[in-house]
Amino acid sequence: MTERHRAVEFRKFLNLINRSVPEDLDVHVVVDNSSTHKTPEIHRWLLRHPRFTLHFTPTYSSWMNLVERWFAELTNKWLRRGTHRSTKELEASINYWIDTWNDEPKPFVWHKSADEILDTLATYCARISDSRH
């Protein structure tokens, strides 16, 4: 984590990932819609590193929702079904889940447009505003 969020810091982050990930692997990076990720400097860097693909979260949506969704999958489909007698067993179980997930990853995708979400929210707000609470 850096104090500033400029293209130069993002490029340093990309360089670190580039050095850390084996060259034969593609790299997918989920980023928000910050202009930092869309600068000419970053665009040139990505052209020189074609194994990198940026995936932008939809405007006004939180990338944390996707992270939380993944942890919900881990919890509901794996941890609640298991018995762990120690922290070491729990850690091994989580690492197994991660390895299995990465063998056949299932990306989380937003299925509704912003307008559909806002319409649903407006309907909900209208319903609760008449509830006399």
Question: Mind explaining what this structure looks like?
Answer:
The chain has 133 residues and is mainly alpha-helical. 55% of the residues lie in helices and 8% in strands. It contains 5 helices and 2 strands. The protein has helices at residues 7-20, 40-48, 63-79, 87-103, 114-129; strands at residues 27-31, 52-56. Strands 1-2 form a two-stranded parallel ribbon. Strand 1, helix 2 (40-48) and strand 2 (52-56) form a beta-alpha-beta unit. The termini are far apart.
Major sheet summary line: 2 strands, parallel
What string gives the helices and strands in order?
HEHEHHH
Relative helix content: 40-55%
Rg over CA atoms, rounded to whole Å, is 20 Å
Count the E strands: 2
End-to-end distance: 43 Å
Average of the residue pLDDT scores: 83
Structural class: mainly alpha
Any idea what the shape is? flat
Quick take:
The protein is mainly α and 133 residues long. It has 5 helices and 2 strands, in the order H-E-H-E-H-H-H.
SSE layout and pairing:
Layout: H1 7-20, E1 27-31, H2 40-48, E2 52-56, H3 63-79, H4 87-103, H5 114-129
Descriptors:
mainly alpha, 2 domains, 133 residues, two-stranded parallel sheet, flat
